[in-house]
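so my prof wants the structure for this chain in the tokens format not the other one, which i didnt know existed until like an hour ago. anyway here's the sequence
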Amino acid sequence: MNDTFMKEKPILPLILSMALPMVLSMLVNSLYNIVDSFFVAQISEEAMTALSLVYPIQNFINAVGIGFGVGINAVIAFYLGAGDTKKADQAATQGLILAIIHGVVMTICCIAIIPVFLRMFTSSEAVIELGIRYCVIAFAFTLIIVVGVSFEKIFQAVGNMKTTMISLMCGCIANIVLDPVLIFGYGPFPAMGIEGAALATGIGQALTLAIYLVVYFVRPIRVHIRRQYIFPGKKMALKLYSIGIPATLNLALPSLLISALNAILAAYSEVYILVLGIYYKLQTFIYLPANGIVQGMRPLIGYNYGAGEDKRVSQIYKIVLYMSGIIMVLGTVICLLVPGRLMELFTQTEATIQAGKIALRIISAGFIFSAVSVTSSGALEGLGKGTPSLLISLCRYVVVIIPTAFLLSRLFGAAGVWNAFWITEVITAVISIFIYRKVIAKSSWPANAGARR
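here's what i got, hopefully its the right format
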């Protein structure tokens, strides 16, 4: 493949070639949580509640891995666009070393705090015990998750989306097969219950990393991990963190939001906490495909920005916005037509199903508007503008929704929390357009790639 294909290939086919493998892999990968939840729900409703309460910490681990990976991705793509392969190698190597450090620290900290964290949201000893049993195994795979995501972003930065698609899909398929086997005990395997769900997911993630490593050594890519760059340099570390920290916060903010909403909903009934947990499992089917498109867009925007191709950057943004909008329309239609069927995947309790139907129909009113903030935030990350991207996410996950949910819950109960979702998406969409246009207006577009080095 031509090394300059990212700035020469026609834009729509280029976006499709980069995004479709990611959309497919993200759709399949979304089954990780869905499948775990489906089988865990067969154990007991307490087990499902435990999984819902643990989700924010799992999301935080993924946020750190993916967020810093976004920094690695953006810096590599920028330097490749600018024609500086040595700097791209340095970014990949030092990014991977820092990611390993993050993984070790998170493994220790997350296992240590989980008992205290669970007791903040429930007094049920059964739920707490199930949550701890799940987390001890699941969090033991944190380093594997973080390193796997780092390789994913390195492969994406050079435009190798097929490898990431195959790796993610193989890991997910392994998880789907192993979940019932390890949870319920088929063949020679003992019934492990909720620990089996955690182990199945961890094995799937380990397989994904193994495939990346095999491909990296068997079929070398344009970017290489080199010994001379192992010790992080100050300038490169600052560049990686200047994008990685805001991107991490972007992805970690949902954890803060879920915890805050759980606290608000707990005042009414644990049923609503379960409904919120189920919603976040379901919405992965909608937002992960959109995120797959954004992942395909990010290296394209970074590469073309590094190469000084301002018109292509603008066209890429617009096309991705339309594509994300189409996905959100489909998601809205599904949630409006069959909300009960969706809830029945995770619970057979009639009260929970009815509460969930109401929640899904109200929340889905904001899906279409969210396409604007999701696309704008991803485009800004691709441009290396981490702070403006973070501002959009702060509005979406903290500044607008938490106060709105709190105030409306005092007036309308749990329904007020559900309405806070679409209100927030409308307000954040307007803010996103303003921020993105302001950043673009201030950006200098040099006539050649060397001007951005």
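also thought this was worth mentioning. The mean pLDDT is 86.
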